[in-house]
Records
---
Amino acid sequence: MSFHRDKIVKFDYNPVLNAQIDYLNAVGATDSTTLRTLDFTPSDTNTIYVSKTGDDSTGTGTAADPVLTIKKAESLITAVKCNIVILDDGIYEEESLAFDTNCRNISAALGKKPTIKPLLVPSTSNYFIETIKGATVVSVNDGRINTRHSKSIPLANGNHVIVYNQKDDTTWYGDIFFVIVDKNGNIVKSETQVMTSSSIRYWDICALESGNFVIMYDWTGTDSKKFKVYSGEGSLVYEHTTGIVIGQDSCLISSVGGHSDRFVVVGWVTSSTQYMIISVTGTIIKSYTVLFSAKIDVDIYMTKGGVIPRPAGGFIVFFKISGSADNRWCVCDNSGAILNYAQILSGTDLCSGCVSGNGITFVCRNTSNQLYFIEFSLIDYSIIRNASLVTPTGDSYYLKIIRLKDLNYVLVAGYTSPTVTFLSRDWGVISTEAISSNDPVDVSYNLNTDRLLINYTNHTAPFRVYEYIKGGFLVDWWKFSSDITLNGIIFDNLEEYLYRYIYSSSGVFKIKWCNFTNIKRVDYKDVDSYPLYVVNITGSAIEILNCKISENDAGFNLTSNSVLVQYCQFYKQLLNPAVHVIGAGAGIIVNHNDFLYNYVSVKLEDNNGLEVLKNNIFYTSLLYSIQAETAVTYTNSVENAVSFNATTGAQVIRSHPHYINDGYVSLEVMDLVLKSRELGYKFESPAIRLADDLKNAGSVEFEIADGSRTWDTIYVMKPKIKKGYNPVGAIETIYKDGDVDTYRDSSTEVLKLEWDSLTESDFQKLLTLYFCSNNLVQITLDPESEPGVYGTYRLVYDKINASPKNWQFDDIGKNDFDLTFKRAYNEGL
């Protein structure tokens, strides 16, 4: 029988678990110098150092005198100096590289977490040529008979309009027609006649920002010009029949950047070249203005000069001065005011230009049919890249350059033997296609659909083909062909037209403690033919250890019979598998990994069923957790999705893994530690101690260093104490003969504390305990005489009284207040 001496009772409540998680491994790039290690000891003898404070011009690559970029460090690699160490945090933008076969390690210094992103200025050798030569021809259509000079432009609605003469004579005069084709090569506006006149020779076409287009034309021997405005669907919107006087036997037009309803026209006579700005209803916005006091030389194909919109507003004119090998370019704002007038490249005549961002690129031809590139800034008009001789040659009359969305180029050059050449950003030739035509080939590119139209003309066997190409320029970023280890690096990317991010063709390949994040193609999503994996490796042995792979198009593509993927976390690879292994046998091991929200977590191709898949957690795979060609057995894992050709073995539990935070709402707060009672949770994750090595399934290894709790404490006056026991699962069975049998599973101890009256101060203390979110309470009935004797209970939430018997005493205290607590009764203890 208990005898309670003290006049007060103590409650400890609102426990805070002081559990200290000690991590035994690290996943991804980490600051820890104890959990992440290097496979070598860096020194100036064996290592090239990279730093944010380094210098590629003067740096020697030592720790005291580092270089700035990995590209420079790679150029210093030797058989002895075979390692690269990055000394600082921060973002490193690195160019496409094919690494020296002597390079063995690219590692972050211990305690550092550098981020590396692609800066794609690739060399020609890094392009994956087959994606261009195998580009998809969407449509081929026959052209019209008696086609002569033709020109095409892209429209805002994704279509292309093609304008052409239809006269088969030697004067190049004739009627003007147009057709409109959609992005798939279908003719959506049949041949439409613009004007009938045997005197029409010079004409031009431009697209407006409104989506309409303008065709302007003149009569030979006059300086009068007329124009028509058509909608993007080919309907006539406006016809200007009053002659506009500018130039003679000449006509170049372009939309004016920043305006949807006006265009510029450039014309010339013997002694001068002029321009004016006109609205789409014929109003003169900028009257006749002399651009240059000499005639410019533009042939029937309009390819010795041109005019294009200026992105910041206005337009850019480029031309050859008649009678000389001298090119000029002129920049005007949207009011027509001249901002810059300068030479392009001396000693050249034929020229074409294209704009991208704040730069303009020109290609020019000299008298020996050699072609040169030069790029200028549209901000200060300085030279960005000096003149560079390119491989293609171009004969007389025709030259056109277009810059594509991926910042590469398409160049059309030649008359009697025209070619279409695909060029990289650094003007290297990717591929060249010879065209079977005796007349020029015109090309236009629609940025909205990423489609290229190539338009052929041939007046001896007239035809025209609409050939659309999609896809295009995919490039490898980092390429290896020998043993290599990547360690402690964050790889980040968002790049269009990237073929392979990291690629290795042979050797032993290891990746340790690295992050791969946001490695995606922006637009080009041919996931079947050219999926973008974070790495593509073909090697004698492959190890992927302690890596974090999150929110990419796909994970690892590994070809080998010796593969180890261990202690990794794969989160949201949504287009292709997180781990794709091509190989067979027990040397392929996928062990202790977490797979969350992946399209396919593990795909086995050409396997034989002996592969080892164990101790993993598969959580919410969108298609399959495991997809195998030959049936395989996996063990000691937690999954809540389906698999294909994969059989559950020992200790596979279909359940939610119960992470502390799976990162679905916010990746930044992802915590893949498993919930457990040691951490204060009411239940344990099914992955706890599930692995065949008696560890937890999944990637995170940890220990709980301290399981103590910190409590809030209150003291109140002692109540009446009532203790009892309730049976759990009680069963009473009465038989026919009157005999009785009873059963119970266990018992619950019930502690009820009753206060006939309470001071207001004590009532407020108990009210705080009652409304605490945690119902675990320690009760010490005699805290003064027996402070070490207490019981741990759960508060039972029931109705409580909050009033006195007489309302006049409400501020003084309360009456008839009670609380009930329960706990399991441990019999025999």
---
Amino acid sequence: MASTSFVLFAAFVGLTAAQYEGWEPTQVSAAMCYWEAPRAAVIRDTLWLDGGDLTWTQKMSNGENELSSRNNPLGLMYSFNFSKPFDTKTNLTTLIGTTSKAPGGAGLVGSYSPNMIDGALLYNDAEFYLYGGTLLAEIKGTEAPDADKVVFHREYQYGVEKPGFQEGTDRQSFPGGITQFVAHGAAVSAPSENKAWYIGGMRSPIWGEIYKIYQNDTHIANSTSSTLITLDMTKQLSETFSNETLQVTPRANPSAVWVPVGEKGILVMVGGVTFPEFTTNGLRTSANSQDSEKDSPEFMKTIDIYDIAGKQWYQQKTENGPGALTRGCAVLATAQDRSSFNLYYYGGYTGVDATSGFSDAVWVLSMPSFQWIKLNDGTDNHARAGHQCVMPYPDQMIVVGGYAAMAGDGNPPCVPNFFHTFNVSSGEWQDSYSPSKWSNYTVPTAVQSKIGGNAQGSATATTPVVSGWADPSLSAVFAAEYTTKINTWYPYTEAKETDRPIVDDPGNGNNGGGGGTPKWVAPVLGVVLGLVFITGILVGFCLWRRRKVLRRGNGTATATDDNGSRIISWIRGQPSEPAKAPTVTTEETPSTLDMAEVRTPPPAPAASPAPVVAHEMADDHIAELPDTSPRAELHGVGLTPVEIINKHTHFGTGNGSNPGTTHQSSYYASVSSNENASSLSRSSGVLGFQTRAQSPEPGPPSPPVSHSTPAGRHDSDVSGLSDNETRHLRHISQATVSSASSGGEQEVSGAQQGARGVPTTVPEMPTPGIPETPTPGHPSPLSPPTGASDGEDYISARMLPVSPAGTGTLRRSMFHESEDDLGSKK
């Protein structure tokens, strides 16, 4: 049985998510219809609402609308933070939060703190007490709440630090002589004084629990209460209630405000009626309408004033007021120089008939001149009673809830604009509320015309206009300045919109509710789809570009295109500045032995640029080639795509510390006996991405030359020539004959590399029989093209500057001819 009850309760809680209570299986949306007599408190930046008769309009799946009121079985309190903007079409369920009063913060509230219509929330800046009110009806099997206990809710601590402080809801007991079974009084709080009051009201004839509808009149609030309940919250955790006999006429639902004048301020009470229709056990007509209509207008003509410090009541006459009104609301706006204090009274009705007499007018009672000014007439279809008014900013009043005139025996119609904002400076209704839009209070023009002065104050009417001060002591109270600090909690930072759905009001007005498609779906979906589309375009472009790059280097092009690409790559590897002298090798007759390789010496220390020295043959010598000399051309196969990638692009596998894995072949400049042509190795391009500064250190001396011929090379027949012919050939070769090292992998440190990874010199193997130390004037060997910078074309490459003999890497050829070799005679 217990588990079944728990399941049913959990299901019920789940159904109340959007409507708060009573969500039906076939329901598609809900809207707040009317809210009779809720009670309100403002704790810093938050409006708290509790109790009252909250009725919803339920829109069903068949298109019909139904009214629903469940009397808040979960004991929920509602909160609205002033940082949330809204307008007349806002779904109010996105604005309002809920907090349970039940023990432990969840579950059915039962008799612990049942739903009360009317009553009050008495508050300061940190906590509030739930006092008084009327039960809706007696429910068989349920108990009434305790008369001598009151529920409170704490949000913040104040005063001395309290290590054991806990926020939340709890109860405490009243002292003797005080009961919570009082309703329809005037509630007013003064946070700067840490005090609150509940003035007058109605009670049952036996001082017991009171109901709105009961089987007899013994538990109906049909008797006036001459009580002045004071709550002192000066010391938190030690709050106290006290009761005094009311010295003015008690009545039902007057409105009161606290005014900051005198030592501790004063209470000003207006309106109320003596025989209201809402205390007649559901009859909806006054039990004594004649006396009520006679007596009640006086409460707007004679203003009741209570001096808190002196505990003294005063009455001050006025005229041209709104007439008899009850269940309206009142707020106070103070001129910037405190020359006038303006009480705003909105709405209400005559209280003798539930079907007529409802007001939408806004009235101003300006003090200390005590003059009534009608600021706004309003409209009949916007009129209401049983609502609440609060001021989030000095220039704005928010109206919450209420109910309209009933039509016959049915329920009242839904009130339009369940939350509505009135600008007390301009005297006009606003279609929206925004926490970022506010200003200091300015006295309306209509009020200035009565009291003088300007928008900031400077009122000239500083005494009651009708009859002067009724009591000189009251004049002294108004003349005394209130010096206690009044805390302000505005402005408020605007909160972002919540994710609750917005649904148009199915009935009158736009009161919001749950159900339907959330309005954030469309913009969020649009953003997501847009990002997906843009991402798809970017990914497609990247894939297309990658495919295009791979196609250019994957070997699928024709052989002609490959060869052209290799030649262009080799040409672009030429340095843009003079590098080394070009190499010219010639031969006249076949040779049987290889030309000896010349090892490149280590780089010389950095020095100032050397002057350019041109190496030419003397003008008195004749040197020519036989007509059978073949044309010089490149030898071997061009660079492969892999070598191009490794050497000329950033896709190469080499890096600063680990050169590419593609092996470099040995570089030879030899006279080929088979081809009778000058030749260069096919790998005479750039070595990866290394600079001259990144050149590897010279290797160890080569071992003695072997008698075997290196693979891939031809024997030279130079040894078969005569000495004169050999010297003749050497004299002709003023250009360099270079040799390169074997192209094995070598580690190159970061300090030995340049910006683009091109070695400064080409490592080589020393050739046996040739001295490792170059002879003076020896020309430098031909270096392969590099990628250190954009090179010139192959034909126009310039000559390198030549350093003085023995001071640089540029050396003249080893070969030397004398005049004897040329056949000259001395």
